[in-house]
């Protein structure tokens, strides 16, 4: 019987009664003591048992479905799951995969009604034990916070932890009152304060440049008044304050007046349609939405995250007008769905690549099957020699164990290859599909709400790469219903933008009004346009 083991601890081994090494050693000894058992897989996690999204556990379930082992062994049931619901779900998945489950220290047989009841009872006790531990820990932390102790998380900038309480960090602390003074007394904005710190050579604790959000976090933190926070309450503490209440209140009054409360900003739904889609080619970061207020209008922009947060010294990419870029991308979608041959060409290219990949997988599968047969024959020869008395166990046991492990790996890879070979080929969308989608896009542009337009763009746009304001490369997805969702790209020149900055005065006309889409030959992610020669398929 092929055995897989699963071990888990919640945090670090130094504070666990059952460390990973101890669990693994005892499970290995248990497997060795059972006749006909062979350890072929080991899985481990250092996470809470209340969650099922654990990397090691998910790998175990995946390999169970691939039939790579016959029994999953744990040291105790509470190492496997800490909730009754989670335990029942995991046992159901293992049962559906034809894999058994056993605890090395808690004897039960899940093939019987009594055994299944015992497992459920152990799950109840595990969940109760976890809830009790949580209640005790929280109660202890509340008492610690009430006495002024620091409970969770890294200490704020300017402090360090000393015997469970905050102590002044002499290298960081002088910057904190300086930030309050620059903001409240000299009336600099958070971005100006961050730029001042960076220009003076100061860096945050992580060694990165200061950002306006990091400055705002400092200005909002009541820890600098000599308080600590835990579970919704601020408690008086014994650590040394870095600013007085007058400085703190003055800074926060200005923060509220200027609307720099990040918690309020987070509750406002974004009106930037391309959120998370625009990528800066200079530094690789995404663009974020921001706005500027002129004398008579509000100007919305997309700005590279690095430039927005750390200034032009970090990234010199240009700001892009949000209105112009939004409309350009919507118009580019319409242009793309007019070209039905574009998708036919893409599907043919994808089919060619799939066929080449299929040939490689078939060749790998043939080689794998031969190796699997040879390995199994070697194991058989060892066993025959052992049974005939020609080979002692000490001479063949270790080698047979290694060969059996290799057989398990080959069988798992064979399952993967067969699954990949069974995948279907991509299908091109019909002209009717593209017509319907184009009509949907037109309706969204004409009368759709910003939320509707945003949902549409998020579903149909893969990404938008920005070299500069004159080189913007949108990459679109295959329309719904076509498989797979291959990215569709409009090559260089499709979204020709210029003059994204607003007019500086009435005498200056924004060049953005002069810019329009310049449709050229559209292509898919594997089709590239070249000047003068038209599109070219890339290998």
What's the gist of this structure?
The protein is an alpha/beta fold.
Helical content class: 40-55%
Please outline the major beta sheet.
5 strands, mixed
Instruction: Determine the strand fraction and express it as a percent band.
Output: 15-25%
Task: Report the uncertain regions.
Answer: 261-269, 480-486, 490-539
Inertia-based shape: extended
Structural class: alpha/beta
- N/C terminus separation: 46 Å
CATH level 1 name of the largest domain: Alpha Beta
Give the integer mean of the pLDDT values: 75
CATH topology of the largest domain: Rossmann fold
The CATH homologous superfamily name of the largest domain equals Resolvase, N-terminal catalytic domain
Number of strands: 18
CATH architecture of the largest domain: 3-Layer(aba) Sandwich
- Count of distinct structural domains: 5
H/I helix tally? 16
Radius of gyration over alpha carbons? 31 Å
Strand order of the largest sheet: 9-13-14-15-16
